[in-house]
Amino acid sequence: MGKSRKVIKPIYMDAAATTRQKPPAVLKAVVDYASKVGVSHGRGTYQPGIAANELVYGTRASLARLFNLQRSDRVLYMKNATEAVNTALKGFLKQGDHVVLSSLEHNAVIRPLNKLKRDRGVDYGLVPANSSGRMNPFDFEKALRPNTKLVCLAHASNVTGGLSPVAEVGALCAKKGVAFLVDAAQTAGAVPLDMKALQISFLCFTGHKGLMGPPGTGGLAVSPAVALDSFLEGGTGSNSDQEEQPQQWPDKFESGTQNYWGLAGLKAAVDLLLKTGVSAVRKKEEALTAQFLEGVERIKGLKAYGLPSGAEKERVAVVSLNLQGKDPSEVGYQLDERYGIMTRVGLHCAPLAHRTIGTYPTGTVRFSFGYYNTEKEVETAVKALKEIAKS
Ligand SMILES: Cc1ncc(COP(=O)(O)O)c(C=O)c1O
User: Fold this and answer.
1) CA–CA separation, 74 vs 23, rounded Å?
2) How far is the CA of 296 from the centre of ligand 1 (A)?
3) Are 163 and 174 in contact (CB under 8 A)?
4) Alpha helices in 235-374 (DSSP H)
5) Ligand 1 in reach of 82 Cβ (< 6 A)
6) pTM for the whole structure
């Protein structure tokens, strides 16, 4: 008989990619919708169609409440944050417009902007963050040009975990009459978000990370103060006599059959967050981050990027690190193989952010914690890193 492999209880520490464990209420809502309702909204006048309409309307209302947006018809369903960013950029920017963004942005923002650069002559300027990922809000003002139409900013970097100065940049944009797009992929559900207070024009969010909803859900919440062209046209279940796209919100942006199973799960997730409070999630994730940082900062030869322990209020539960003399992919492999710890290594779809903190092209090992991680798991991760550093 061959040697049996030691059974290790897996520890998931890649919540920045997706939250693996969802609240039981989310799973139940998906199954309930699929088995008991199962039809599209706005199509049939039969009984389950009414339940479908209520789901679509109700999920929008819950999301508008979560993000403090007065008009729920301005919450547009998208399949993820990437689709939301594309819809906002491609529906808002015109030939020759200028955009300002930070040097920590994800490819979800950079890639569509580079396409718009080629297709529409849209130009953009980068505001550099320092090697810890901090930005100076005054640099955004300096980067504005007469033709600047939009400032794009990730609310939190998926590499450094640092929170951006969204309140200051939002106030600047409002003062200068420039629209403000916030990529909340890493913060929706994890950090309280108030579109009105932060003066956000476009809030791009995804359902499968901090909101703890199903993959394939997300949205674009748009301030009533901004106009937007549609990016996709087709059947909406409304104005069926017309061959032109309806112009009323949200129909203008929601062509084709929606992801009802996903929306059912998303509604359950958001309602749970509204009940528990995002600040309760935030408190737990701050504590796990502090515990992890305090532990790893004592390890010889380990470099953690971004803000140090003690600055948890200025960051989310995402920590990038490297071990001296070791390739991040080797460290990630050992964490998984020897300890069952799942992390994400490499460039995290954010090459610009890695250039900013000096870790391009090899990248880092990224730990990211969610609501379901425990102190014990963090303790195990710190111990594992200590052992790998010594080996
Ligand atoms: C900062 C940031 N923006 C955008 C995205 C894209 O999110 P999604 O894959 O849900 O579209 C991510 C996902 O990793 C992210 O971290």
Assistant:
1) 27
2) 26
3) no
4) 260-276, 278-296, 328-339, 351-357
5) yes
6) 0.97
